[in-house]
Please model this.
Amino acid sequence: MAVIIPIRGLRYNPLIVEDMADVVTPPYDVIDSVDQERYYRRNPFNIIRLEYGKILGADNEKNNRYTRAAADYKNWLGQKVLIQEQKPAIYLYEQEFTAAGKKKIRSGITCGFKLETYKKGKILPHEETIPKHKADRLQLMRACQANFSPVFSLYTDRENRVITTLKNTVKETPPDINFTDDYGEIHRMWVITDPDAITEVQRVMLDKRIFIADGHHRYETALNYKKERETNDTKPQMQATGSATTTQKTMGSEPAYNYVMMTLVNIYDPGLIVFPTHRLIRNIGSLDVGLLVEQIKENFIVDEYDLDKNNFRQLLDMQEKRGLGAQSGQKTQNEGEHHHVFGLYAGNNRFYQLTLKEDLDLAQMMPAGKSTAWQKLDVSVLHTLIIEKHLGICGELRAKADHITYTRGEESAIDAVDRGDYQLAFFLNPTLVDEVTAIAGQGEKMPQKSTFFYPKLITGLVINQL
Model:
């Protein structure tokens, strides 16, 4: 089902860029304005200028973040800051990091993935998307005709044949890219051009269903871009360079925009970690926190705590254990009975723990037409029974993204409420990988930002020309 191809990616020229840590960034959607400015100042060739350029006050139709990205991209190609792979390649990518005090290594492959609509069932989403974010990515893709960052997806390979094949190919060869980022995470990448290894990986992947983990907006944007190009190009013309050349050699006469750059990780990879994505709420007129808490008590048991820096982590740990039905930490995530437990912070150093009452008929309270698996998701319960019911953020309001911001940061969420930037912070427990694949496998989608796969893929290792 999954058609993947090697690509002649663009990479930073090591003769010009000596330290890759100077030019890479996290994905654009986790970068705030402070970090954006920091990456701008770090290096004139930082990928931020292409992937997530600044918006300036004098921007107009002819001079804006997208036209500036296209100009920089063209200049970097001309100056050979970015150079193209001599042969089509699949990239073996390792990330070494620490989670819960333990060292982890997550392995994946970066390649070209043949675009398919969701209805064909070959690639499956698990989250809703936000229209204005897709519009932003489409304008960038139109201007630059490139993928600057990959879609992050999952596949099932119990025997780990894909990664084993590639590791046996590179053996003791040093990685082509090797650096440590700002967060102490180590990134290693090998460029694999061996035809036999590539053919074997393609063969193994052919019967796989793909689950999008991160990058739903990028994938759907690539589909929209493909439709535009098909409409505009009555006789598609191949580009002179980039992955179009690769596609022509590998897939006959297909144009490069039929593919999107993707990094694929095995669901059974021991380094696959999922953290929660929390909700920050703003722009709720005449919000009465006391009244909101009383309304929540209709369906939830509410425990109230004094909050300080010393006990916040303990409260979140307690929340997660309660959600898993754990007693004194004895039950594991898979063994424990699932309960719906959330944290709420509304300022004044008061933290509320919200536990859904067990005697409720959840199926009668959740949206009709949704599966039992969807109804039992923490994010579904939070959005339906609190955010929509009591705060009125649903439908078009949610899609506009004027009221909800999504964050991985926990202490920073507390600070944002204390500063008055936001009115409320809701804290969730992690979504399980099995829940993600179960929802996607039956054609449903979770609410936006239901998961946070950690660590994020770094942006700037490889660029895919269209």
